[in-house]
């Protein structure tokens, strides 16, 4: 198949969830012999969307990547007040919501023209995440020219209620979600579901990490540590985890440490028991997971947690945010950890896992088996190919039927 992917930013240095998912799916499909191209912005940072990468086509891991310029970086003085107004009312006129989308960024004015000019080269266009202008303005354009699939990567958040997103689900020919909870949320929100399926996301089943190397590099010795992998961002729960952990240590003194691995969007206060690595390469991340005692996933907003699944491949039990339905569902289906809500539950669950090595081992193995059963790359890619071909065939049939009905002589 000739496959196009559209996403807000793309690159090995880009650590965002939907962006990383898009890149992994694109690269695995290219490795299976499909012709795969990506159209995206030149941005590296989702904070300001400023142009970073050179414009034009490049090739990354077998995928041709077309980078288009952003009109201008996000201006907090313009975006902030409008964002607050939008979230307070959620009933702003559509033209105001479209202005909000452009100011949120990345505003890529050349994308519609690029899609119009290049659509005929592809059998199918895939759009990752509903939230940004690349999908909101790009998918309806592509849908007029070729079959489309939307990966909404949706979770419960105020922006999802905005009417400016209504047409996306209706414009797409197919919908692929990463968890049952995501599909249920999308169906309830839009009250309309095209051809849809839960596909999940592939996870490397045999990661290699050197826990001792990470421990030695950070002076951890044999001390137990909880690991968090993800952006340091209030929306990801990292600030709350930091507070909960420090309070737990105040009430229960021990040699337990917290290791935070990820790009700092906001700064966490320094603390002797907290190690902040910042953004690290893939191997360092795997080393950190290999040496950990358990994993914490405190995010309130997830459509699928790759970090959780990667922790399970190392047999790590998990503490997850109960108020995130996706995390709660993943952990309960896998038997791979404990959900919590609030400090008291967090502290009790953490203490329980630390004092019960047998329970940690049982939950870690449950998570490992769950990932092996549901998220092997070959299985995910087989399901994608089957679904994509079904969308292409159904769209072609519908187009042929439309041509037949409009023909003045009717069918032969």
From TrEMBL:
GO terms for molecular function: hexosyltransferase activity. Transmembrane segments: none annotated. SUPFAM superfamilies: UDP-Glycosyltransferase/glycogen phosphorylase. Residues 16-204 form the Glycosyltransferase subfamily 4-like N-terminal domain. Residues 214-369 form the Glycosyl transferase family domain. InterPro entries: Glyco_trans_1, Glyco_trans_4-like_N, Glycosyltransferase_grp1. This is Unannotated protein.
């Amino acid at each position: 198949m000739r496959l196009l992917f559209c996403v807000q930013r793309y690159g090995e240095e880009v650590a965002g969830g939907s962006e990383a998912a898009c890149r992994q799916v694109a690269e695995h499909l290219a490795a299976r012999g499909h012709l795969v191209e990506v159209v995206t912005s030149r941005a590296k940072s989702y904070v300001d969307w400023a142009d970073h990468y050179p414009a034009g086509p490049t090739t990354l891991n077998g995928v041709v990547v077309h980078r288009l310029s952003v009109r201008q970086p996000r201006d907090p003085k313009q975006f902030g007040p409008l964002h607050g107004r939008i979230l307070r009312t959620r009933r702003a006129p559509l033209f105001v919501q479209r202005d909000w989308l452009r100011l949120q960024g990345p505003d890529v004015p050349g994308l519609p023209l690029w899609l119009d000019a290049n659509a005929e080269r592809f059998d199918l266009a895939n759009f990752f995440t509903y939230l940004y202008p690349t999908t909101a303005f790009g998918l309806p354009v592509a849908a007029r020219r070729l079959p489309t699939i939307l990966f909404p990567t949706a979770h419960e958040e105020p922006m999802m209620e905005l009417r400016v997103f209504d047409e996306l689900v209706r414009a797409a020919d197919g919908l692929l979600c990463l968890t049952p909870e995501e599909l249920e949320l999308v169906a309830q929100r839009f009250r309309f579901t095209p051809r849809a399926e839960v596909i999940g996301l592939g996870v490397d089943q045999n990661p290699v990490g050197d826990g001792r190397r990470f421990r030695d590099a950070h002076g951890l010795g044999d001390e137990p540590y909880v690991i968090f992998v993800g952006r340091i961002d209030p929306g990801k729960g990292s600030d709350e985890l930091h507070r909960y952990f420090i309070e737990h240590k105040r009430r229960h003194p021990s040699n337990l440490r917290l290791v935070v691995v990820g790009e700092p969007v906001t700064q966490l206060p320094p603390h002797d028991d907290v190690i902040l690595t910042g953004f690290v390469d893939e191997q360092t991340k795997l080393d950190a997971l290999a040496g950990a005692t358990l994993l914490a996933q405190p995010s309130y907003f997830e459509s699928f947690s790759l970090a959780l699944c990667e922790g399970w491949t190392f047999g790590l039990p998990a503490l997850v945010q109960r108020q995130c339905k996706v995390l709660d569902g993943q952990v309960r289906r896998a038997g791979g950890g404990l959900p919590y809500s609030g400090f008291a539950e967090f502290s009790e669950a953490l203490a329980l896992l630390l004092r019960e090595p047998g329970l940690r081992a049982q939950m870690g193995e449950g998570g490992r088996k769950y990932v092996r059963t549901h998220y092997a790359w070959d299985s995910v890619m087989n399901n994608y190919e089957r679904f994509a071909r079904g969308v292409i065939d159904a769209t072609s049939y519908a187009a042929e039927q439309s041509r037949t009905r409009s023909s003045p002589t009717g069918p032969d």
